[in-house]
Amino acid sequence: MSTTSPFDLTGKTAVVTGARRGIGMAMAVSLAEAGADIIGVSANLEAEGSVIEQRITSLGRKFTPMRADFADRAAVHGLAADLAEAGPIDILVNNGGTIARTPAAQHPDDMWDQVIEVNLSSQFILSREVGQQMLERGSGKIIFTASLLSFQGGINVPGYTASKSGIAGLTKALANEWAPRGVNVNAIAPGYIATDNTQALQDDPVRERGILERIPAARWGRSEDLAGATVFLASGASDYVHGVVLPVDGGWLGR
Is residue 59 classed as helix, strand or coil in its secondary structure? Predict the structure, then answer.
């Protein structure tokens, strides 16, 4: 009987986009705790000495920083080329994203375009390029960060909602094609997590109270609440899980 944990990621290399802070940092740390080396990607990630680097290396894992502006299509292709040179990628966590809050009637084209480019188009391109290598090897794990707004409409964030609804569909589309070839594609849908992206909601006493009253767990989520789902979907424990959008939301969607 094997004594190896199905959640053990020793010897694996994971790419985590948006790794400099918040949910991305928590995801990267959780993967490192499970044994993976980390390639962290962010538009403003320091070349050395970053907080995420310190946290990963303190766990005895290797950390490689890379920069990419996901609003720049050429930069995303450049990142894909750099990752191809970095060696086999076992796990790709597509977490990098942005949000823009303006009522739909005043939502400008440039705001819409940027959110769709960062949250959806760049995610597809990176998954396609890294996924080709996974398909050649017959193994790999791709995890998207979806959202509660993959299921709901939200308020004042039409571009974000459209992009995250697109991520849910993309997760299923890639899983349908790639599951037979050994590549798992799934997504995590965080609930209301206390990060910079939700600061405007946290600062609005009416919205904040309404949100908190609806969460059965009776608290805002923490970035670390995403750790277990991330390791599960990145590990052998999820080998028969394909095309799932897994909510980690304190029970919000079940309310």
Answer: coil
Mean pLDDT value of segment 27-42: 98
pLDDT tens per residue, range 123-171: 999 999 999 999 999 999 999 999 999 999 999 999 999 999 999 999 9
| Token reading at 128 | 């396609």
- Catalytic residue numbers read 160
CA dihedral 126, 131, 136, 141 (to 10 degrees): 130
User: What pLDDT is stored for residue 4 in this prediction?
Assistant: 83
Strand extents, DSSP E, the chain: 13-17, 37-42, 63-67, 91-94, 140-145, 183-190, 245-248
Please classify residue 33 by burial: count the beta carbons closer than 10 Å to its beta carbon, then call 0-12 exposed, 13-18 middle and 19+ buried: middle
Q: Which sequence spans correspond to the domains of the chain?
A: 13-248
Q: Burial, 254: exposed, middle or buried (Cβ in 10 Å; 0-12, 13-18, 19+)?
A: exposed
Give the three-state DSSP class for 248: strand
Instruction: Give the residue among 223, 250, 241, 237 at the shortest CA–CA distance from 27.
Output: 223
User: What is the C-alpha separation between 132 and 181, in angstroms, rounded?
Assistant: 11
Cα three-residue angle 116-173-81, rounded to 5 degrees? 60
pLDDT tens digit sequence for 78-116: 999 999 999 899 999 999 999 999 999 999 999 999 999
Architecture per CATH, domain 13-248, reads as 3-Layer(aba) Sandwich (3.40)
